[in-house]
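Changelog note: in this version the structure field was regenerated for every chain. One regenerated record is shown below for reference.
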Amino acid sequence: MADSDNKLAWITGGGSGIGKALALALDQQGWQVVISGRTEPKLQAVAEQGRHIVYLLLDVTDRAQNLAVFNTLCEQYGLPNLVVLNAGDYTPMPAEAFDLDLIYRLNQVNYLGVMNGLASVLPAMTARQSGQILLMSSVAGYRGLPDAAPYGATKAALINFAESLHRPLKAQGVMLRVVNPGFVTTQLTAQNSFKMPAQITTTEAAKRIVQGLDSDSFEMTFPKRFTYVLKVLRCLPYRLYFFLIGKITGK
């Protein structure tokens, strides 16, 4: 839940995509925003578009660097009330193009990169007994989808991990939540060769996230006209699920 007296946010992967749009949206709401990422020109460009946006360089796959950057953030700006662990990567992988290097890379960024961020922020937030942490997951984590195995597996892991810690952390005053968007127009989703249903812009995605900050629900998911269809598919027995997915995707 957002605390209006402490509008300080840290967003990883803040140089592009949803992270960039969210940083600008929070800036417009009067938040002090610290964005992090690996590419300084992108981060600098975002900071120049806002009034209260600054950046700290970070490779989320570097465990020690995560803690160092978080400590620097706290020393210079204070302990954030909102942390959005958003940095992520995506490349499709058809079954006939099994790529172990890709699997390792996406796991390092999408899952272990988030774990590195959590390890950095949780001790301070639990000690303060307040704060909100958003993990950027995806509806691709609901069930296996053709060509998305390396990506979807990392997102499923995030959902499962957050489900396990949500109640214990809530009892300590820290809200751990997941954001599960559908298809959002970014450089990553531009790699898809199929028509993406109910696609929304990064600006719309950021708007939905900002609107959900004051909720105490575990999950933010949007657009619901699409994501709730996937929720129904998640409940189906495998035989029916595989049949329908085959019909929908042709794979």
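Spot check on this record: Helices lie at 17-28, 40-49, 63-77, 100-128, 149-171, 202-212, 224-234, 238-249. The beta strands are 8-12, 32-37, 53-57, 82-85, 131-136, 174-181, 219-222.
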